[in-house]
């Protein structure tokens, strides 16, 4: 963690400020430039631009392609997985764009996996009625992200700002008040290398910051996934929704030498079996006798959690030893090589796995074009709540949503950009406290470890009223400490992330407390049944309680 202390920096003006360099942010930039080549875009990344959630997506992109498949089947599977909370117009629109997005990736020169006869190899994943997962082996996210990243770097109009962390959006809610009401004008951004906070002004601001997996102790997400977009938008006055629905991926590798390594859903799609590590029993027959290992993620994750809770071993086994070594090396090259490096031969040995925080199904409330409640502020990708995923995301729908929403938002923001810029004289530069706390790093590490452990224990796969109430009290104590620190001390990246994570945790827990039922990825042990009417949960700054629409 950096010890650089923030000071006042420069002021920049762009047509568009994009915060986040995953698939959604890159797609937005590339599509906007194709529509209006003369625009000037700032693209902000907390680390190297390639480091994002999209990079770690192993599975692929879902799109109905085969003759025996259909768009209607893909829509139906998405609605079933979403457990009553999907927004049908969003589902239909995004799913119907699937084939077109695959063609577009082909134009980007993304090469999907083919079989020995030269036919596309479409994978099977949980919750899908057909093979429809376009993939690049087990490195789909990395392959696509690298390709699009390189395309963006060849565009002179796209200016990369790596190792820059957005602190706050500039609106009338920010302490540096302006006379511009209900409108986002830019963001204050920490340059981690220089230790200065710059003022970025833009006609449109695009949040593409990914999820908040680092809220939990066990996650498939990289270190950059700290819920920055949700936190900044909420503080600015935008509504957020369905925050209680955090999806847990069933199969994170359980090994002391590797953190955050996902074992793709596609392993189960190719016949992988889940077995109790103590008894050797194939246990999914007790939870989903028809779909078995290919049930939706919420069902499989809870099943694994239950098996672990009732055993003396802290994991279950994933067994794909019936497949040949040659097949596994070709189908899952990254997984095979990584497991071999720690002494696990997946063609002979069973793989120890546990559930882990994976994907934020809720987020910043947007329409199908990515528009939020605030003028000139858009949200796309995992940080946005479009209604596609409902209470539980269907496997491999996330990259599809990122591509579609990136394209849509690009078309929509052209209207904002056509309006002349006129507000720069009203925006003050960042004014930071000069006081420095030399014990900052150890204090922040302690707060972070404590919070992630508490969230995993009380707001994870299984929740109760008592646990959530106690957890909320702990969160509010931590939040008070952090907010006092924020106003008194110079800030760093690690502090910004901790502040955002604590706010995300509060939003998750408040929504989980308010939802007194079990639905999708939200399971209340004290309210195990689902209510007849499905309602979204909505939260907004200034409202003490989560409401339902």
From TrEMBL:
The active site is at residue 297. One of its GO terms (molecular function) is L-aspartate oxidase activity. GO terms for cellular component: cytoplasm. Pathway: Cofactor biosynthesis; NAD(+) biosynthesis; iminoaspartate from L-aspartate (oxidase route): step 1/1. GO terms for biological process: 'de novo' NAD+ biosynthetic process from L-aspartate. It comes from the Bacteria. Its EC number is 1.4.3.16. It catalyses: L-aspartate + O2 = iminosuccinate + H2O2. It is found in: Cytoplasm. SUPFAM superfamilies: FAD/NAD(P)-binding domain, Succinate dehydrogenase/fumarate reductase flavoprotein C-terminal domain, Succinate dehydrogenase/fumarate reductase flavoprotein, catalytic domain. Its main location: cytoplasm. Its cofactor is FAD. InterPro entries: FAD-dep_OxRdtase_2_FAD-bd (IPR003953), FAD/NAD-bd_sf (IPR036188), Fum_R/Succ_DH_flav-like_C_sf (IPR037099), Fum_Rdtase/Succ_DH_flav-like_C (IPR015939), NadB (IPR005288), Succ_DH/fumarate_Rdtase_cat_sf (IPR027477). It holds the Pfam family Succ_DH_flav_C. Belongs to the FAD-dependent oxidoreductase 2 family. NadB subfamily. This is L-aspartate oxidase. It comes from Legionella wadsworthii. The lineage of its organism: Bacteria, Pseudomonadati, Pseudomonadota, Gammaproteobacteria, Legionellales.
